[in-house]
Write a structure and sequence with these properties.
Layout: H1 5-19, H2 26-30, H3 46-51, E1 57-66, E2 73-81, E3 84-89, E4 92-98, E5 102-108, E6 114-119, E7 130-133, H4 137-148, E8 154-157, E9 160-166, E10 169-178, E11 182-185, E12 191-196, E13 205-210, E14 213-218
Parallel strand pairs: 5-8, 10-12
Antiparallel strand pairs: 1-2, 1-7, 2-3, 3-4, 5-6, 6-7, 9-10, 11-12, 13-14
Helix pairs in contact: 1-4
Organism: Lynx canadensis (Canada lynx)
Domain TH1: 23-197
GO molecular function: cytoskeletal motor activity
Length: 222
Amino acid sequence: MCCDFRAEMQQKVVTSELFRGKKEGYAEALNQPFANSRIDEGDINPKVLQLISSEKIQYGVPVIKYDRKGFRARERQFLLTQKAAYVVELAKIKQKIAYSALKGVSTSSLSDGILVIHVSPEDSKQKGDAVLQCEHIFEAITKLVMLVKRGNIVNVVQGSLRFCISPGKEGTIVFDTGPEEQIYKDKNGQLTVVEATFSLPRKGLTPYHSGSHSCFQRWSLL
Protein backbone atom coordinates (compact mmCIF):
# COMPACT_ATOMS: atom_id res chain seq x y z
CA MET A 1 0.00 0.00 0.00
CA CYS A 2 1.34 3.42 -0.94
CA CYS A 3 1.94 6.13 1.63
CA ASP A 4 -0.41 9.09 1.73
CA PHE A 5 0.86 12.05 -0.29
CA ARG A 6 2.04 14.22 2.61
CA ALA A 7 3.88 11.38 4.37
CA GLU A 8 5.51 10.31 1.12
CA MET A 9 6.72 13.83 0.37
CA GLN A 10 8.23 14.09 3.87
CA GLN A 11 10.03 10.80 3.35
CA LYS A 12 11.36 11.81 -0.05
CA VAL A 13 12.76 15.04 1.37
CA VAL A 14 14.78 12.87 3.76
CA THR A 15 15.78 10.57 0.88
CA SER A 16 17.05 13.59 -1.02
CA GLU A 17 19.07 14.81 1.96
CA LEU A 18 20.66 11.39 2.35
CA PHE A 19 21.40 10.38 -1.24
CA ARG A 20 21.23 13.26 -3.71
CA GLY A 21 24.44 13.32 -5.74
CA LYS A 22 25.84 10.39 -3.75
CA LYS A 23 24.18 7.14 -4.87
CA GLU A 24 23.23 5.84 -8.30
CA GLY A 25 19.53 5.14 -8.76
CA TYR A 26 18.51 8.03 -6.51
CA ALA A 27 16.56 9.93 -9.20
CA GLU A 28 14.73 6.79 -10.34
CA ALA A 29 13.79 5.96 -6.74
CA LEU A 30 12.25 9.40 -6.22
CA ASN A 31 10.04 8.85 -9.25
CA GLN A 32 8.62 5.64 -7.76
CA PRO A 33 5.94 5.67 -5.03
CA PHE A 34 7.04 4.73 -1.52
CA ALA A 35 4.97 2.11 0.30
CA ASN A 36 3.79 2.02 3.90
CA SER A 37 5.25 -1.49 3.97
CA ARG A 38 6.40 -4.16 1.51
CA ILE A 39 5.20 -6.98 3.78
CA ASP A 40 1.60 -7.52 4.86
CA GLU A 41 1.10 -8.41 8.51
CA GLY A 42 -0.48 -11.67 7.37
CA ASP A 43 2.86 -12.66 5.82
CA ILE A 44 4.68 -12.34 9.16
CA ASN A 45 4.77 -15.50 11.27
CA PRO A 46 2.35 -15.32 14.24
CA LYS A 47 5.18 -16.30 16.62
CA VAL A 48 7.19 -13.28 15.51
CA LEU A 49 4.17 -11.02 15.91
CA GLN A 50 3.73 -12.38 19.43
CA LEU A 51 7.40 -11.82 20.30
CA ILE A 52 7.24 -8.16 19.30
CA SER A 53 3.61 -7.57 20.28
CA SER A 54 4.60 -4.71 22.60
CA GLU A 55 5.92 -2.78 19.59
CA LYS A 56 4.01 -1.59 16.54
CA ILE A 57 5.52 -2.63 13.21
CA GLN A 58 6.12 0.50 11.16
CA TYR A 59 7.60 -1.06 8.03
CA GLY A 60 8.66 -4.39 6.59
CA VAL A 61 10.53 -5.44 3.46
CA PRO A 62 11.93 -8.74 2.09
CA VAL A 63 15.74 -8.83 2.07
CA ILE A 64 18.64 -11.15 1.37
CA LYS A 65 20.93 -11.49 4.37
CA TYR A 66 24.56 -12.49 3.84
CA ASP A 67 26.16 -14.51 6.61
CA ARG A 68 29.05 -12.64 8.17
CA LYS A 69 31.18 -15.78 7.91
CA GLY A 70 31.11 -17.31 4.44
CA PHE A 71 28.58 -14.84 2.98
CA ARG A 72 25.92 -17.43 2.28
CA ALA A 73 22.75 -15.71 1.01
CA ARG A 74 19.54 -16.27 2.96
CA GLU A 75 16.03 -14.91 2.47
CA ARG A 76 14.82 -12.87 5.43
CA GLN A 77 12.28 -10.25 6.47
CA PHE A 78 13.49 -6.87 7.70
CA LEU A 79 11.02 -5.33 10.14
CA LEU A 80 11.13 -1.87 11.72
CA THR A 81 9.26 -0.89 14.88
CA GLN A 82 9.39 2.31 16.94
CA LYS A 83 12.27 0.88 19.00
CA ALA A 84 14.26 -1.61 16.95
CA ALA A 85 15.07 -3.25 13.63
CA TYR A 86 14.55 -7.00 13.32
CA VAL A 87 15.99 -9.54 10.89
CA VAL A 88 13.49 -12.40 10.80
CA GLU A 89 13.59 -15.96 9.48
CA LEU A 90 10.14 -17.54 9.41
CA ALA A 91 9.22 -17.91 13.12
CA LYS A 92 12.63 -16.83 14.46
CA ILE A 93 14.07 -13.42 15.20
CA LYS A 94 17.65 -13.84 14.00
CA GLN A 95 18.83 -10.40 15.06
CA LYS A 96 17.33 -7.52 17.01
CA ILE A 97 19.05 -4.16 16.69
CA ALA A 98 17.75 -1.61 19.17
CA TYR A 99 18.03 1.89 17.74
CA SER A 100 20.03 2.90 20.79
CA ALA A 101 22.65 0.31 19.76
CA LEU A 102 22.64 1.24 16.07
CA LYS A 103 26.00 2.77 15.21
CA GLY A 104 25.37 3.56 11.54
CA VAL A 105 24.24 2.39 8.10
CA SER A 106 26.55 2.02 5.11
CA THR A 107 25.74 1.59 1.43
CA SER A 108 27.74 2.02 -1.76
CA SER A 109 27.57 4.84 -4.28
CA LEU A 110 26.45 2.26 -6.88
CA SER A 111 22.93 0.88 -7.37
CA ASP A 112 23.57 -2.61 -5.96
CA GLY A 113 21.07 -2.57 -3.07
CA ILE A 114 23.58 -3.59 -0.39
CA LEU A 115 23.25 -2.02 3.04
CA VAL A 116 25.22 -2.77 6.18
CA ILE A 117 23.72 -2.01 9.57
CA HIS A 118 26.54 -1.36 12.01
CA VAL A 119 25.95 -2.13 15.67
CA SER A 120 27.69 -0.77 18.71
CA PRO A 121 30.62 -3.01 19.75
CA GLU A 122 29.75 -2.25 23.37
CA ASP A 123 26.41 -4.06 22.99
CA SER A 124 27.12 -7.58 24.28
CA LYS A 125 23.87 -8.87 22.75
CA GLN A 126 25.11 -8.25 19.20
CA LYS A 127 27.18 -10.81 17.30
CA GLY A 128 28.14 -8.38 14.53
CA ASP A 129 26.88 -6.10 11.78
CA ALA A 130 23.98 -7.10 9.50
CA VAL A 131 24.81 -7.33 5.78
CA LEU A 132 21.61 -7.09 3.72
CA GLN A 133 20.53 -6.68 0.12
CA CYS A 134 17.25 -4.85 -0.45
CA GLU A 135 15.37 -4.12 -3.67
CA HIS A 136 13.85 -0.99 -2.09
CA ILE A 137 17.04 0.32 -0.52
CA PHE A 138 16.25 4.05 -0.69
CA GLU A 139 12.83 3.53 0.86
CA ALA A 140 14.09 1.15 3.57
CA ILE A 141 17.00 3.34 4.68
CA THR A 142 14.78 6.43 4.69
CA LYS A 143 12.21 4.69 6.91
CA LEU A 144 14.98 3.51 9.24
CA VAL A 145 16.54 6.97 9.55
CA MET A 146 13.18 8.58 10.31
CA LEU A 147 12.50 6.03 13.06
CA VAL A 148 15.98 6.30 14.55
CA LYS A 149 15.69 10.12 14.36
CA ARG A 150 19.40 10.52 13.60
CA GLY A 151 20.12 11.65 10.04
CA ASN A 152 23.89 11.49 10.37
CA ILE A 153 24.01 7.68 10.60
CA VAL A 154 24.14 7.00 6.83
CA ASN A 155 27.50 6.62 5.09
CA VAL A 156 27.63 6.31 1.27
CA VAL A 157 30.99 4.76 0.35
CA GLN A 158 33.02 4.27 -2.80
CA GLY A 159 35.19 1.25 -3.48
CA SER A 160 34.85 -0.74 -0.27
CA LEU A 161 33.69 -0.75 3.32
CA ARG A 162 34.66 -2.52 6.53
CA PHE A 163 32.16 -4.24 8.79
CA CYS A 164 32.18 -6.19 12.03
CA ILE A 165 32.04 -9.98 11.60
CA SER A 166 32.24 -10.59 15.34
CA PRO A 167 33.69 -8.65 18.28
CA GLY A 168 37.30 -7.85 17.40
CA LYS A 169 37.10 -9.26 13.86
CA GLU A 170 36.39 -7.25 10.70
CA GLY A 171 35.49 -8.13 7.12
CA THR A 172 35.51 -6.22 3.83
CA ILE A 173 32.91 -5.67 1.11
CA VAL A 174 34.31 -4.55 -2.25
CA PHE A 175 32.11 -2.72 -4.78
CA ASP A 176 32.93 -2.82 -8.48
CA THR A 177 31.38 -2.65 -11.95
CA GLY A 178 31.43 -5.30 -14.67
CA PRO A 179 29.54 -6.82 -17.60
CA GLU A 180 27.02 -8.58 -15.34
CA GLU A 181 25.62 -8.27 -11.84
CA GLN A 182 27.31 -10.58 -9.34
CA ILE A 183 27.71 -11.02 -5.60
CA TYR A 184 30.28 -13.56 -4.48
CA LYS A 185 33.03 -14.38 -2.00
CA ASP A 186 36.37 -13.76 -3.70
CA LYS A 187 39.67 -15.62 -3.22
CA ASN A 188 40.71 -13.14 -0.52
CA GLY A 189 37.63 -13.96 1.54
CA GLN A 190 35.95 -10.64 0.78
CA LEU A 191 32.37 -10.16 -0.35
CA THR A 192 32.56 -8.69 -3.86
CA VAL A 193 29.53 -6.86 -5.23
CA VAL A 194 29.57 -6.17 -8.98
CA GLU A 195 27.11 -3.78 -10.61
CA ALA A 196 26.36 -4.37 -14.30
CA THR A 197 27.60 -1.54 -16.50
CA PHE A 198 25.39 -2.19 -19.54
CA SER A 199 22.17 -0.25 -20.07
CA LEU A 200 18.87 -2.07 -20.40
CA PRO A 201 16.86 -1.55 -23.61
CA ARG A 202 14.30 1.21 -23.56
CA LYS A 203 10.74 0.25 -22.81
CA GLY A 204 9.04 -0.90 -26.00
CA LEU A 205 12.22 -2.39 -27.44
CA THR A 206 13.47 -5.94 -27.17
CA PRO A 207 16.95 -7.19 -28.12
CA TYR A 208 17.61 -9.72 -30.84
CA HIS A 209 20.82 -10.94 -32.44
CA SER A 210 21.67 -10.68 -36.12
CA GLY A 211 24.90 -12.46 -36.93
CA SER A 212 27.57 -11.03 -34.66
CA HIS A 213 25.68 -7.79 -34.07
CA SER A 214 23.22 -7.06 -31.29
CA CYS A 215 20.29 -4.97 -32.51
CA PHE A 216 16.92 -3.81 -31.25
CA GLN A 217 13.50 -4.31 -32.72
CA ARG A 218 10.17 -2.89 -31.65
CA TRP A 219 7.61 -5.15 -30.07
CA SER A 220 4.82 -6.08 -32.43
CA LEU A 221 1.53 -4.41 -31.59
CA LEU A 222 -1.41 -6.80 -31.59
